[in-house]
Description:
With 397 residues, chain A is mostly helical. Chain A contains 20 helices and no strands. Chain A has helices spanning 3-25, 28-49, 55-71, 75-83, 93-104, 111-122, 127-133, 138-154, 168-183, 193-210, 215-228, 231-234, 254-267, 275-288, 297-310, 314-328, 330-340, 350-362, 366-379, 383-395. The longest helix of chain A has 23 residues, at 3-25. The mean pLDDT of chain B is 89. Chain B is α+β, with helices and mostly antiparallel strands. Chain B has helices spanning 11-15, 19-39, 89-96, and strands spanning 2-9, 42-47, 55-60, 63-68, 77-85, 108-113. Chain B is globular, with a radius of gyration of 16 Å. In chain B, strand 3 (55-60) and strand 4 (63-68) form a beta hairpin. The interface between A and B is medium-sized, with 25 and 21 residues. Chain B: This is YciI family protein. Chain B: Residues 1-114 form the YCII-related domain. Chain B: It holds the Pfam family YCII. Chain B: Belongs to the YciI family.
Amino acid sequence: MTGPAVEDLLRQLMPQVLGALVRRYGQFEGCEDAVQEAGLAASVQWPRSGVPDNPRGWLMTVASRRLIDAVRSDQARRERESVVEPPVPEVADTDDTLLLLFLCCHPALTAASQTALTLRAVGGLTTAEIARAFLVPEQTMAARISRAKQRIRAAGGSFPPPSGAERLPVVLHVLYLIFNEGYTASSGSALDRPDLAAEAIRLARLVHAQLPADGEVSGLLALMLLTHARRAARTTAGGDLVPLAEQDRSAWDRDLVTEGMALAASSLGAAALGPYQLQAAIAATHADAATAAETDWRQVYALYLILERIAPNPMVTLNRAVALAELSGPAAGLAVLAGLEADERMAGHHRLLSVRAHLLERAGEVEAAYECYRRAARATASLAERRHLESRAARLR
Amino acid sequence: MKFLIIMHINPAVLDALTEQEKAAIGDGHGRFMEALKESGELITTQALVDPSQAAVVRVRDGQPVVTDGPFLEAKEFLGGFYFVDVESKARAIELAARIPDAAIDGLGVEVRQVMFADGLLEA
């Protein structure tokens, strides 16, 4: 087997082995180190001497031995342990990977640490890969990961209670963050970002396979698939943003759209309704229209109204204003925006400014729209978005 | 989110400090850097030489013209910066407030988010 093939296999197996190890011995930090070492040994040995018949068992054995070595410093003991093969526990892999995901989303960690730890322990990405994706030096990411592991230990971290239900929202949020990091190419070259979105989708699929009846899990996966489907149409060859209304819909990934639509529809049948389901339903409504002009804005508006009620958030109100403007004209949308001005999280926010600029332009208030586009361009931290807004402003001159 | 925490210095203000106060600034920066490394938020920090050692380069008619001294005719100059990776602007401001310079009368620390990056970190 070649190097890259071994890497793929390891990426798939290491989280399973780590999960089984943590289930058996607890102490996440020590297990993680042991599995990393076993993985390192495998990546050196397997391309040379071939992959063993039972690669997962091999990794389990080596990692268990490393762990025991580390725990017991007594020399005689260590020798005995290395002669006696530790039994390989056969635990359902998927179950453990999911538990591992829940552990990495420990509430004692910051969202940034949860994300990093999840990508490393569950995603099987190396520290260097994660650092590259987040555009920070490897050393910075290594410090963050090791700090996260320490904090889990300090918090008495082993697996969360079996149901783990109360931690599910955190897990979904972390997957959403990973996806967004991959989706919004906010800075730098876009090189590693699509991989991150794909990884978030893979992990969401994993959670969905375990909890197929949970509407929010299905909703999040559907939302990711429908958003990811638009990837090719979102930017020009030159890297400029293409707004939804102007995207070439034939460039959307049909398979992802079909799968996302079906999931979104099924998620709405769940007992409880949550924000991911509603956002997926909105994305599905957009995907359902053959052209932007055929969008069912009445439905989009209704969905934003419900979303605003169950998960109030100024961004949701902003999106509702956009939908309302499509239904009843720019003045109606601008009236909703006026209500947002008082919200200190939103006043001066580039999203609010760019939506206002767009609505002013549609209302024929060219001069005000021009000023607003310019203000929005100055307020954004994304270079692509700034270029887009500047060109909008320039068009008005 | 990446932020540059910019330290503007005023040599006159710094000169007026006692030796003890100057030492406290150094210690404060040392502790600050340790804490940032431990939390994984520090990307890099650089301190700059005194503005009197600066040179300004301008190209006019294709010819570089170099003059001594800083670009801005000002009392305050860029003294150095911390480049950090944090969760929010609020966190960046919280960190900036812990930099000793921020507590000195006549000085302040500026926080600016990074909009575009290229170079070593992407290698």
